[in-house]
Please model this.
Amino acid sequence: MSCASCVRRVEMGLAKVPGVAQVAVNLATEKATVTLAEPVPPEQLVQAVQKLGYEVPQSTVVLQVDDMSCASCVGRVERALKAVPGVASASVNLATERATVTGVAPVETLLAAADRAGYPAQVLDDGSGVADAGFDVGGDAGVDAASAGAGQNPATHAAGALGTAGATPGAGGGAGAAGGAKAAGGAGAAGGSARASGQVSGAARKPLSREDRKAAEQRALWRDLWIAAALALPVFLLEMGGHVVPAFHHWVAHTIGTQNSWYLQFVLTTLVLFVPGLRFYKKGIPALLHGAPDMNSLVAMGTLAAWGFSVVATFLPGLLPAGTVNVYYEAAAVIVVLILVGRFLEARAKGRTSEAIQRLARLQAHTAHLRRDGAVVDVPLAQVRLQDVVEVRPGERVPVDGEVIEGTSYVDESMITGEPVPVAKTAGSTVVGGTVNQTGAFTVRATAVGGQTVLAQIIRMVESAQGAKLPIQTLVDRVTMWFVPAVMTAALVTFIVWMVFGPAPALGLALVNAVAVMIIACPCAMGLATPTSIMVGIGRGAELGVLFRKGEALQLLKDAKVVAVDKTGTLTEGKPALTDLLVQPGFDRAQVLAQVAALESRSEHPIARALVAAAEAEGLMLPAVSDFESLTGLGVTARVGGVPDGHVAPAGAVSAEAASSAGVASVGAAPAGVAPAADSSSAAGVAERVGSEAPVAGASVLVAVGADRYMQTLGVDVSPFAAEAQKLGEEGKSPLYVAIGGQLAAIVAVSDPIKSTTTAAIRTLHEQGLKVAMITGDNARTAQAIARQLGIDDVVAEVLPAGKVDAVKRLQQRYGAVAYVGDGINDAPALAQAEVGVAIGTGTDVAIEAADVVLMSGSLQGVPTAIGLSRATIGNIRENLFWAFAYNTALIPIAAGALYPAFGILLSPMLGAAAMALSSVFVLGNALRLRRFAVAAG
Model:
């Protein structure tokens, strides 16, 4: 919305929706407060606004969902959340126990829906605060307004609540005491305003951390396991001891008696089932009654069937056919014990899958030495604000992201970048919170705190990727939705077949085999197969400095056939230095360098910074610059000369003429640490060049610097430097031409050192069976020279930034799936075009936002590591899925008695329970192998 007319238009549009009593739209807050006379679905209000050409931004909320145990639970929670009016999408992850919901539904409605489904949920506090549950109206058509409540980008920041686009009436469906409607978010005000206060009720209070919840769960399972085992052991011995020692049965019959033995087994088994085993019935029976049976339902039905039959045999034996009176208390009791063993081992393994996140979270310092009012005080980290100055002492963790303002030291950044070598830090250096200071001390000015630090963003990014559902999971979800009902049907068929065709005692055999079918089936293994591998794989990647911003990249990266890389900043250090400057007769070398540096001081390109640094190293005074123009990927031009442009050269600087007379004959690379002058800007487009003009002392002159193709557009002949250009290109240097006053004046060459890890990384990529292509704006000779040096397979040179997308498309047509690696703004379109975009973490924010994977170390070695991890993780998922499906496919028929006709073999329900428990543990253990994934090395 941009004006009062927009306000009136939205108000009139919403007022036409049936059930809307009153509408008030606020232009300043971009919110609509809707009072309802009767229930109106939120999506109906949203659609009314969208039809007018305005947008209602959708928010994303992440819920912590408890008590899920299998894939059926996941499907049940997803269906419950998707059924809430205003929900656009809902995705539930079993391994992370999180639900990600996008839409305009009130958060309390989501929590209530999950709770009604039998799974209590809480809003995860991610540091963003709780979003306003009001009705946001965006700007002009197609443009989403920022959420006024959360102030965060929903795509990258999980808000604490969903905005609501409407309201539902209060209790009883009436208008309420004030004649209005109560807000759907539960924040109804006088008059029934649909706008919520932005505070979430007690149900959305801050939950325990996942680590604490898992620890509590393990303690509870361990306690219940010991109770169940202690009670079940006598039952097992009383019933099964005679199979090991035949005289034991006679001893029991002659001491306490068989009937008394059954009474004792009844008491002990009942305690096992309804004390430590109560968890299965509290979840399984309601799920069954709601028509959405899960793993708990199978356990509950199987154990209750065995227990119920035994109770009848114990107390009402006359109701059973002759020859079928027997008890199966030991089966029910031992099944509960074995499943608790499996759940305990599963809980331990699940806790280990999130260790990567836990380790990252533990990197954060708890206190900071804050300089305040001339003194240094220790304060909790939460009290540090932007621009605060904190001291970092030897051996301490850096508390916040910031800039070093005094002191020197080395900092261990391996936990963030994966690089083991400590990095030198001096005044002006940036530091990252959570890294470890070594022996020195320094002072930092905070540039990011709380949820905005690099560490916090990494944790959010990893958690988001871990919660993603890969395309491979879609098929699994469809299968598991029907798995439990199919197993229950199989158990029923098994019971009927054994009753009709089984030998005597048919009833006992039918019961045992039906129970075995229900107990041995394991939807847990299928539900955990994919998300646990993703969780461990992405967590391991974070430890190695490889961040998967999108979980889908983990599956897509393994299919890459070619890795396309940008040259500057990716293969090279991104810090070029001037190596050669050759001038035409009649031009002074020092004067040319000063004019070129003055021109390039207005550019942000790394090569420009190299030329400016070289001039400053020579102590040259830079002349004034005007009419600066740039043609991206080709070159720059401006009028240079006259009064110096305020560009102060280092102490002892001399003019170009003085430098020349003093015998300055050559220009080398700028010394390390020399920074370019400030005041950089750039413009688009190049003005038409007309003719040539002779340089006049003291007057401004037109200076152009660029590639040979740029000189051609200016009508400048570069053939006098043809031999020199070829020689420089073959040496891997980037030649540029200088035209002054429309005349060719000089050729300059810069060289960008290749990163020390580049050669090994490319060698590893070749070992992985991948092709490597380089896409660069450099001239073909230079690109080919670097390609030969590094062993690159394909070169696409002299490409303008806009042409990188076409270059990627050609590589896709030639090779197949492409992974593109870049670090700059001009790489963003190519990163988006490729199947997987990989950004160097030291690059620009735009490149990182466009990428699917981020390499924190800035080294190309992260690419083969990411690809290797992708292949290992997807391979691990396939192993898990094969085991889970093969296990159920093979053992369910065996449990039903498929081997009995040929071999006389029946599977005991106790063995079925053990196999079921171990199947989930196997899947989790297999996923945990990814924690040992090693860095790819060439």
Q: What stands out?
A: Confidence is low (pLDDT under 50) at residues 125-206, 643-697.
